[in-house]
Amino acid sequence: MTTVRITRTALTRGTLAALSGLLAGFAALTVAELVSAAVRPEASPVTAVGGAAIDRTPAGVKDFAIRNFGENDKLVLQLGIVVTLALFALAVGVLALRYRRTGSAAVLAFGVVGAASAVSRPDSTGVVDGLPSLVGAVAGAVLLYVLIGRLTRPRRIPGEEQEENEGGWDRRGFLIAATAAAAASTVAGAVGRTLNGRSSQNAVASREGVRLPAPASPAEPIPAGAQLRVPGLPPFTTPNNKFYRVDTALVVPKVDANTWRLRIHGKGVRRDLEFSYQDLLDRPLIEREITLCCVSNEVGGPYIGHARWIGVRLSDLLKEAGVKPPSRGGKADQIIARSVDGMTLGTPVEDVMDGRDAMLAVGMNGEPLPFVHGFPVRMLVPGLYGYVSACKWIEDIELTTFDDYDAYWVKRKWARKAPIKTQSRIDTPKPFGRPEAGTVMVAGVAWAQHRGIEKVEIRVDDGPWRPAQLAEQDTVDTWRQWSYPWKATPGGHTLTVRATDGTGEVQTEKRTKTVPDGASGWHSVVVSVD
Ligand SMILES: Nc1nc2c(c(=O)[nH]1)N[C@H]1C(S)=C(S)[C@@H](COP(=O)(O)O)O[C@H]1N2
Ligand SMILES: [Mo]
Predict the structure, then answer these.
(1) Residue 385 CA to ligand 2 centre (angstroms)
(2) Of 13, 90, 195, 432, which sees the most CB atoms within 10 A?
(3) What average pLDDT does range 191-218 have in this prediction?
(4) Per the database record, which ranges form the Oxidoreductase molybdopterin-binding domain (predicted)?
(5) Residues 407 and 268 placed together within one structural domain of the fold
(6) Domain for residue 462, yes or no?
(7) What pLDDT, on the 0 to 100 scale, is given for residue 164?
């Protein structure tokens, strides 16, 4: 009888201790959220730890994450952090039942990790970024100490001897403290969230206030024949909400265009320049069709999109700053573009100044840049993968050399220079599709930005290469659609595509991984014809 009762009490206390750990963790995070509203939203612990984790992720793992979770990779990471923290919190609670001080110390240790992560982020504003984690951890540690106290201290009833029966602990006191803590934490978290949301409202308002001027140099209209009418092909122009997104930002930066500034400075700059958003809008704008793609795109992958961009010609700004390309004696061969979240991307000065339409874009498909695509201003260089050219939320352009500085991805094993490789993709039929025998329209896209696509060929099984019909080319900086009417016979077949770029070079068969400078090889699709 007694044994049973003790066991049950121990079990309940153990469970409540675990719950105390969870409550302490919850309090720590919500208090941190509240404090981060006073510091900056990005300094909240989950964001900071997540960001630091992304920074330390090896190239292979990052690729794995993009492959498996796609654009949900950040959500998966945040969930992972929260679940891990919850498990630790439960364990710390149980530990605290035996070692009350050690439990609280463990909560503080987590706070130190969070603070260190926040301070070490590239966009950190200094030691204040550690405050949310530290203050949160202190709140969590104190709460755990108090709650565990209720679980270990016998209840005192005034005027009576200490009660040793009924499990010997203060059940009522615990429940009151726990409920109060849960309520207070929820309020702290809600207030913190609201305040953090408010800081982005100026940015949202500034974006809504933008009227993009008509471009001084409009894009040629896309020829009607650039879009094939084959079901299963993506539209030539990717709608903004369908455009792929790849970046390291756990929280999308919300920049107020009214306070945004861009600085141009560094090696070979005769005079430093600074621009406001309005300064850029007041300049003659160019409008261009440019297809952007990611170095992490596998053969046949989805990380490519096409849009009509509007912006300022970057070489004009550089010339105004007195910059010369290396081929004309310029001292700097690399541009480091820095974003508000501390990302750095390195681009060859020569490419930006060789006459191509490298730009600081302010508009995408007729609207101001969406926040996820870099509002207020991003860089674009036709022909280069995004990670060496397409800096979103840009705020600083520094001229330097490839010898002197390695940008973010280069420090993580990616190549210093990365022109886009000639690629082609079969969009229809889909892999393992079951088309009917007869004429099947095989179709897809091919791209070799800034060189253009001259030819696309299709091979059925081990047969000869046959030319596909090319859609009209828009410009050399855009992708090109193609189609091939295939006389499909029943049975299993493998369709393979390869492209030839505008210089006459045939897309290589050699399969390479995405690291270090982009995947190569032919895209194949296996189908079974009924
Ligand atoms: N600030 C910032 N800019 C960035 C990145 C980033 O992580 N941070 N990622 C780059 C990469 S790898 C690519 S492929 C493109 C993707 O642009 P999108 O998300 O608008 O498609 O943005 C580039 N610009
Ligand atoms: Mo990328």
Answers:
(1) 6
(2) 13
(3) 92
(4) 251-409
(5) yes
(6) yes
(7) 46
Ligand with the closest atom to the CA of 409 = 1
Ligand 1 pocket residue status of 247, Cβ below 6 Å: yes
* 311-351 per-position pLDDT tens digit: 999 999 999 999 999 999 999 999 999 999 999 999 999 99
For ligand 1, whether the C-beta of 248 sits within 6 Å is yes
CATH number of the CATH domain containing 379: 3.90.420.10
Q: Is 62 in the pocket of ligand 1 (CB under 6 A)?
A: no
The β-bridge relationship of strands 453-460 and 438-447 is: unpaired
Residue 248 CA to ligand 1 centre (angstroms): 8
> Has residue 302 got a pLDDT over 60?
yes
Q: Give the residue among 252, 302, 243, 240 at the shortest CA–CA distance from 75.
A: 252
Q: How far is the CA of 249 from the centre of ligand 1 (A)?
A: 9
The pTM (predicted TM-score) of the whole model is 0.85
Q: What pLDDT is recorded for position 123?
A: 80
Residue 157 contacts residue 2 (beta carbons within 8 Å): no
Last residue of a domain, one of 387, 412, 437: 412
Please tell me if the CB atom of residue 66 comes closer than 6 angstroms to any atom of ligand 1.
Answer: no
Half-sphere exposure of 290 (CA within 13 A, CB side): 28
Whether residues 242 and 124 share a domain: the answer is no
Verify that 151 and 242 share a domain, yes or no. no
Structural domains counted in the chain: 3
Beta bridge partners of 526: 494
Average pLDDT, the chain: 93
Q: Is 262 helix (H, G, I), strand (E, B) or coil?
A: strand
Q: What is the pLDDT of residues 51-60, one digit of tens each?
A: 888 888 777 7
Q: Are residues 55 and 182 in the same domain?
A: yes
Task: Take atom 20 of ligand 1 and give the residue whose Cα is closest.
Answer: 373
Do 246 and 376 lie in one domain? The reply is yes
CATH of the domain at 459: 2.60.40.650
Residue of 77, 245, 392, 514 to test ligand 1 pocket, by largest number of atoms within 8 Å of CB: 392
Cα separation of 202 and 324, whole Å? 38
DSSP annotation string for 101-141: HHHHHHHHHHHHHHHHHHHHSTT--SGGGGHHHHHHHHHHH
Tell me the CA–centroid distance for residue 294 and ligand 2, in Å.
4
Question: Does 360 fall in a domain?
Answer: yes
- Of 65-74, 106-115, 504-513, least confident by mean pLDDT is 65-74
Q: Across residues 455-473, what is the average pLDDT?
A: 98
Residue 176 in any domain: the answer is yes
Which residue puts its alpha carbon closest to atom 13 of ligand 1? 386
387 lines ligand 1 (CB under 6 A): yes
Give the three-state DSSP class for 43. helix
DSSP state at residue 219? P
The rounded Å distance from CA 156 to ligand 2 centre is 64
Are 488 and 378 in the same domain? no
Q: Which atom of ligand 1 sits closest to the CA of residue 374?
A: 20
Q: Provide the pLDDT confidence category of residue 11 given band limits of 50, 70 and 90.
A: low
Interval 249-281: pLDDT, tens: 888 999 999 999 999 999 999 999 999 999 999
Q: Going by C-beta distance under 8 Å and a sequence separation of 6 or more, which residues neighbour residue 200?
A: 41, 254
Contact 377, 207 (CB under 8 A): no
Q: How far is the CA of 314 from the centre of ligand 2 (A)?
A: 20
Question: Do strands 523-529 and 491-501 pair parallel, antiparallel, or not at all (unpaired)?
Answer: antiparallel
137-167: pLDDT as tens digits: 999 999 999 999 999 876 666 655 554 445 5
* Residue nearest atom 7 in ligand 1 by C-alpha distance: 247
CB of 412 sitting under 6 A from ligand 1 = no
Residue 39 has pLDDT above 60, yes or no: yes
Residues 497, 358 within the same domain: no
Domain co-membership, 35 together with 177: yes
Among 412, 440, 470, identify where a domain stops.
412
Q: Looking at the domain assignment, is residue 208 inside a domain?
A: no
